[in-house]
Amino acid sequence: SVDCSFSRGVCDWKQDTDDDFDWNPADRDRGDGYYMAVPAFVGHKKDTGRLNLLLTDLKPKSSYCLIFSYRLAGERVGTLRVFLANKRHAPVWEQNKEKDERWRTGKIEIFQESETTNSVTFESERGKGKTGEIGVDNVILISGLCPED
Predict the structure, then answer these.
(1) Are the C-beta atoms of residues 49 and 87 closer than 8 Å to each other?
(2) CATH 2.60.120.200 holds for 2-143
(3) Partner of 99 at 20 to 30 A CA spacing, among 60, 62, 79, 89?
């Protein structure tokens, strides 16, 4: 497994330069490191900010599981989407509302064909809300299928 979290991870993260705003580090409540976040008030409605995880050394014809923590906090805060590089037009995962503001776990299976996925993009789209944030943390890539809960 590869640790792509933000505090100690070994992965290559890049801010997209063609989007409307950047993701920024935010301190964790317990003080142990940070996560990446977009506050609700950044940008205008429908603006997007994209954070790209560059993947290298993924083997063709194999499966991987991307596991991450996410939080959508605040009224009408917006939408969090995940895209794979070779399927740019449609998100492979999307969330825009939660019952509460707890951190949750997202899982995405990545099946490598002969052409491998070379990046994963976390996209935050601004909603109508003025408070709260969209956050992502603890991004881990493991080989094989995603484990059941």
Answers:
(1) no
(2) yes
(3) 89
